[in-house]
Amino acid sequence: MVWRSISGLGAIGVGVGIGLGLLDGRAADQPQWGERYSRNMVSAERGLPATFDPKSGQNVRWVARLGSDTHSTPVIAGGRVYLGTNNRVPRDPRHQGDRGVLLCLDERTGELLWQLLVPKITTSKYWDWPYMGICSPVTVVEDRVYVVSNRGEVLCLDPAGLANGNQGPFVDEARHQTPAGEEPVPVGERDADILWCFDVVARLGVRQHDSAHASILAVGDFLYVNTSNGVDDTHRHIASPEAPSLIVLERATGRLVATDGERIGPRIFHCTWSSPALGDFGAGPTIVFAGGDGIVYGFEPLRQAPPAGEVVRLRKLWSYDGDPTSPKENVHQYVTNRVTSPSNIKSLPVLHDGRVHVTLGGDLWWGKNQVWVKCFAPPNGADRSQPAEVWSYPLEKHSMCSPALAEGLLFVGDSGRKLHCVEAKSGRPIWTHDVKGEVWATPLIADGKVYFATRRGEFLTFAVSREKRLLGEVELGAPISATPVAANGVLYVASMTQLFAVRAKP
Known about the structure:
By secondary structure, the chain is an all-beta fold. Helix content is 2%, strand content 35%.
C-alpha cells in the first residue's frame, strides 16, 4: 500500500460542483442523516401532526417492534425504512443471542422485508457494548445501501436483500451472519445481500470503543466515513494512535483510497463518533469533520481516485479549535476531571448560511462539565485563512445531539435536561425548557414545528417560534436515542423498543 498526499487532481467527481445533488430517491424520501450534505435535521414535509397517542392509536399509521436498545436513526428511501437495533426480539428463531441488527421494513406497513445480522466483537465488551446493536444510520444512494456495522465494517447492501438472489461479489453471507466457531446458518430471502465489505478494524487496526457510530457521507464516487477509533478498556490509553480517524472508500467497490493523515489518534479523549459533512463556503467544496480531539477540520474533497494500490492523504484546508485553552497533550491524565479536561465532539457539524455549528465540550462520562454550542465561519477566500468564531453559547451539560436550524433559530438539547432555542445569527438565548431526561436525539424541524425527544421517553413538539409554545407532549415509556425524521408525509419516531409511523388522519 502506497501513501502520498493529494492536491490539484482536476475536477471533483460527479455532482460536487453542481448543487451538491448526489443522493437518489423520491423527492420526499429521507435517504441519509439530515438535509443533504449540510447535516441539518430539517424537512420540507407538511401536514405532520403535533402529537400522537400510542395507546389509542390516534395518528399512528403502524408500529414496529424493535429490540431492547435502539440508538440508530430511521432512514427512508425507495419504499423501505432502515433502522439499526439489537436481537433481543429475534425475528428469525435460528439466530438467538446478542447481535447487531439492521431492519429493512416496508414503508407502507412496517412489515419486515429483510434483516442484516452481525455477530458481536468478543474481544471485550468495550469494543462492542452488550446489546447496543447497530448504532449507525444507513445512507442510501441510487440502488445501494451503505452502513457501518457494530463490528466496524463498512457494508454495501442490495436494497432488495436476497429476495432477488445473491448479487455478489461478496457471497458468504451465511458465514458473515454466524458467530465464529459455529456452523454457518443458511441464508434466505429475508436476509441481507452484502455486495462488498470493508473491515475497518481488521484492515486499518482501528480500536473502536463501546460501539461503531458513523453516518456515511456519499460524495460523487466516494464514501467518507469516520472510523470510531478511541480509547482502550482503561479509558486512559489510545491502543491505535496511528489509525486514521476519517477514511475515504470507492463507492462502487469499497476500495480504500484516502485517509485524513492528521494523526489525530493520540489526542482522542474518548472516541471518534462524529460524522463528516460537505459544504461550500465560497472557496470551493469542503469536507467538514469533527475529530475525537475536539477539533473541527476542513479537508479538500477527493478529486479522483488514485492509481490501484495507492492510498492518499486528504489535503487539510483549515482547522477550528473551539476550546483553545484546554489540554492538548497527555490528554488522558484528565480522565474523570470535571473541572479541567480536553473537549470532544460526539455530534455532527451542521452547516447553515455559510457557517458551521457544533456542540462541544467536556465528555459526558469522563470530562469537565463546561460545554457550548459554537458557531464559526470557515474561510471563504483563496488565502485559506483560519476560521473565525462568530459566537459561543453555553449549555448545561455535554450535548450528544447536533443542533438544528431554521427561520433564524437554532434548537438543541443537552444532557443537563434542558432544551434551548437560540438566535442563529448572534447566539443570543431566546428560550429554554426543562425536561425530565437527558437529550441524546437531535431535534427535527418540519412543518413549522420542532420535535424533541429525551432519554426518559418524552416526545415534545414546539412551534418554531421566538415565543415558547408547547404544541404536544407524548410519553413513550422507553428511552429515546434516535432522532425523529419525516418522509413522504409520515413522521417516524423510534424509542428503544418501538418504531412509530405517525401521520395526521383526516
